[in-house]
Amino acid sequence: MISPSETAFAKGDKTRSVLMPKSVWESLMALRDDAPLDAPVFSSRKKGHLCESAVWRVVKTATKRAGIPKEVSCHWFRHAHASHA
């Protein structure tokens, strides 16, 4: 089951709808607790948004832990998701 779409802003000032399974949406909303709607879901240790280099480190660490032998990136995951969707 897909949740209502969330709006995201893409390059070129275009608006995109992001669809996800209801279970994922509920898990993300639970992580937010009672944070304001404009607060980041995944925050840094300083409680702000994650910077680009921090996201890269998370992806690289997760890739290694998962035993994926290829070099991957956030864009690689995005492309894979779009291809499979």
From TrEMBL:
Keywords: DNA recombination. It comes from the Bacteria. This is Site-specific tyrosine recombinase XerC. Residues 1-85 form the Tyr recombinase domain. Pfam families: Phage_integrase. InterPro entries: DNA_brk_join_enz, Integrase-like_cat_sf, Integrase_catalytic. GO terms for biological process: DNA integration; DNA recombination. One of its GO terms (molecular function) is DNA binding.
